UniProtKB/TrEMBL annotation:
Domain spans labelled Thioredoxin: 46-158
Alphabetized UniProt keyword annotations: Redox-active center
SUPFAM superfamilies recorded: Thioredoxin-like
Name of the protein this chain belongs to: Tetratricopeptide repeat protein
Source species, domain of life: Bacteria
Naturally occurring in which organism (per UniProt): Streptacidiphilus cavernicola
Assigned protein family: Belongs to the thioredoxin family.
Length: 324
């Protein structure tokens, strides 16, 4: 059975600029604190904590969110007695030991954390999410093979470093830091790095141009397409009055401009299915140039989320039914 890959591109993060800066600062403060403690104690820095631990909803805000400023935290939602979830636990624990501090694994027993599960919209078990710089990152739902999980973890670690400056310290939790240095992700190329940096500092015009420059040389770059789609979305919602946009969307259901703006606002607010449904319905009520304009805008929103996301797959099917 294939996992329902939710993709890290499923999260649209309007707070990325602020979060990246704050996360980098917190991580540096934590490293400095451990270094000072080691100097004052006259020995090696103490272990930063376990690689695998259990967490309840009461501990989520107090422990997981701050820790995510230092290292990617993978959340494993499971329940004792439910075989598919129990079978995934040892696989994730093995990978946590293998990656040795590049991420940590927090196990959440859904029976003891029902409010948290509702807040995070957990629909199935197992469900695996991640938290990076306080930002929730969907990974996958349902059973998954180790090789597939490994690919998602590698992507998570790379994004955490490139976009937020968060690098889990290898060996810091297992005490093996003095051994052979672990293999690090390949550094991002300068052109892509310039685009990401422009997006992180809020220079949306610069980011858009930088991503377009990358695509001019590498038209198939999925990462650049994603970055461009996100930057263009953020630029469109800049300066919007949310209340006015939502009112216009409700009062003028057939006004293309009003509905496109409302869909953008829906997506930025995390209401992905609402945004898609709004425009799919509008395609069914428009013709000619208006219909094509709505369709193209919807395809652009699909790029923001990622083609493999199940919400995109479902919306593509609905769009096809409206068109044909």
């Amino acid at each position: 059975m294939q996992p329902r890959n939710m993709s890290m591109r499923g999260a649209v993060d309007l707070a990325a600029v602020k979060a990246a800066a704050e996360a980098a600062e917190k991580a540096e403060q934590a490293r400095a604190a451990r270094a000072r403690q080691a100097q004052e104690g006259g020995g090696e820095a103490p272990s930063a904590g376990p690689l695998v631990f259990d967490v309840s909803e009461a501990e989520f805000e107090a422990e997981v969110v701050p820790l995510s400023a230092e290292v990617p935290v993978v959340l494993d939602f499971w329940a004792e007695g439910y075989a598919p979830a129990e079978e995934l636990n040892p696989v994730l624990e093995k990978l946590a030991a293998e990656y040795d501090g590049r991420f940590v694994l927090a196990r959440v027993d859904i029976r003891n954390s029902q409010n948290l599960a509702r807040q995070l919209q957990i629909r199935d078990l197992p469900t695996v999410l991640a938290v990076v710089a306080g930002q929730l990152v969907p990974l996958f739902e349902g059973p998954a093979q180790e090789a597939e999980i490994r690919q998602l973890l590698d992507q998570l670690i790379t994004v955490a470093e490139q976009r937020f400056g968060i690098v889990g310290e290898v060996g810091a939790r297992s005490g093996s830091a003095a051994g052979e240095p672990a293999e690090r992700p390949e550094p991002v190329d300068p052109a892509m790095s310039a685009a990401h940096e422009a997006l992180d500092r809020g220079d949306l015009g610069g980011a858009i141009q930088a991503y377009r420059n990358v695509l001019a040389e590498r038209p198939a770059s999925v990462e650049a397409k994603l970055g461009l789609a996100q930057a263009e979305l953020l630029q469109r919602v800049q300066g919007m009055d949310p209340q006015a946009v939502r009112s216009a969307g409700a009062e003028r259901p057939d006004d293309v401009d009003a509905q496109l703006a409302a869909a953008d606002l829906d997506l930025v607010g995390g209401h992905v299915e609402d945004a898609f449904g709004r425009l799919v319905d509008l395609v069914g009520r428009t013709f000619g140039e208006d219909r094509d304009r709505v369709r193209q805008h919807l395809l652009g929103l699909f790029e923001v989320i990622g083609a493999e996301d199940q919400r995109v797959v479902k919306a593509r099917g609905a769009l096809a039914r409206k068109l044909f």
